[in-house]
Amino acid sequence: MYIKDDIVYANTLEKDIKLIDFKIIAELYLLLTFSTGEKRVLDFKPFLEYPIYAILSDLKKFEQAHIDNGLLTWDGGNIDISPETLYANSYEYNDILVM
To answer: What is the pLDDT of residue 94?
Structure first.
């Protein structure tokens, strides 16, 4: 647990990072770009098990994602996910093509 900006978070602080860009690259897969300059890939499917994210199984709703203050959000900010959680649950992306 940690406190940042007077908000208590249940997980641990990995890095002080922000999400600066994202792209949906496949069904429920995101290419994320962080303030560290790193690009990472996230499979969002495991998050659908949590009630708050279940509505995002509707791909039209999932595709309405946007960034608000470094957070990935949906539904006018009623649903969000921290960049630390995105980072911790994603894997490194390498955009070099293998021939």
So the answer is: 80
φ, ψ at 77 (rounded to 5°) = 95, 0
Which of 26, 23, 4 minimizes the C-alpha distance to 82?
4
**Residue closest to 21 by CA, chosen among 63, 72, 92, 78:** 72
Alpha-carbon gap, residue 3 to 9, rounded angstroms: 6
Model confidence over 44-64: pLDDT tens digits? Answer: 999 999 999 999 999 999 999
What is the helix (H) or strand (E) element at residue 59, kind and residue range?
helix 59-62
3-state secondary structure of 19: strand
